[in-house]
Specification:
With about 250 residues, this protein is an alpha/beta fold. The protein has 2 domains: about 130 residues, D-Maltodextrin-Binding Protein, domain 2 (3-Layer(aba) Sandwich), CATH 3.40.190; about 100 residues, Periplasmic binding protein-like II (D-Maltodextrin-Binding Protein, domain 2, 3-Layer(aba) Sandwich). Helix content is about 40%, strand content about 30%. It has 9 helices and 8 strands. The strands form 2 sheets. The chain has a 6-stranded mixed sheet. Strands 1-2 form a two-stranded parallel ribbon. Helix 6 packs across helix 7. The radius of gyration is 23 Å and the shape is elongated.
Amino acid sequence: MKYLLFAVLVAMQLIHGAAANTEKTLTYAVPHWPPWTDTQTYPYQGIDVEIITALADKAGFKINVLKCSWKRCLKLLEQGEADIATNVLRTADREGYLHYLTPAYRTNLDYVIYTHKGDMHTVRTKQQLYSLPITIERGAHFPDEFSQDKNIQIRPVSQTLFAIKQLINQRANAVIGEEYQLDYLVSRLDTNRVLEKQPLLFSEPINAYIVLSKKSHHAEAVAQLSDTIAQMMDSGQIESMMRDYLRPNE
């Protein structure tokens, strides 16, 4: 009987120890959306992966990364099978199952233009675009200031990746796209540094959030995580992490 009691006590300690090891773990739902999240190789990379890792470390959590399509990620959050996600826009439907951690960590969407250095273009005003065919990704969203101007000649291609490759080979005059995506692609593809970002910028407001599932076992940590995000924003840490990630390797 003593041996049985001892065995039970040992088992209970092991179970308690295992629970203690997992009770501070957040399951992070990660879609493939470079440069924010890149799941092509493991360990997964991306701006958001680094931000979440830093956030969790500051708040005393460990991170378990779960790869999923965006639609599947949202379903996992709704069911409580995933705890946390990044780059989520606020909708009435999502508010039913998500806590939006405030403040939003992305508040503006900037669109930039790249040209080839050999073309000697400096684009400071929208009117200077009128003489240049601008390569865009077919079906992509752009601010109204750009997309509604009929004087701008657009040249659609299937992917922004192809547009950048064409620009490097001087088979395109200029490429426009979301700043972080273009900076990321240029930093990886433009090995000879033949492209340059133009001063002209198109912007529109956006609020993208880090969210916590309302069914998460750590739903009580909303205030703590929000406070930590606010500290990271106020200190400039998040902005610095975004810029550092996109800095070309020397």
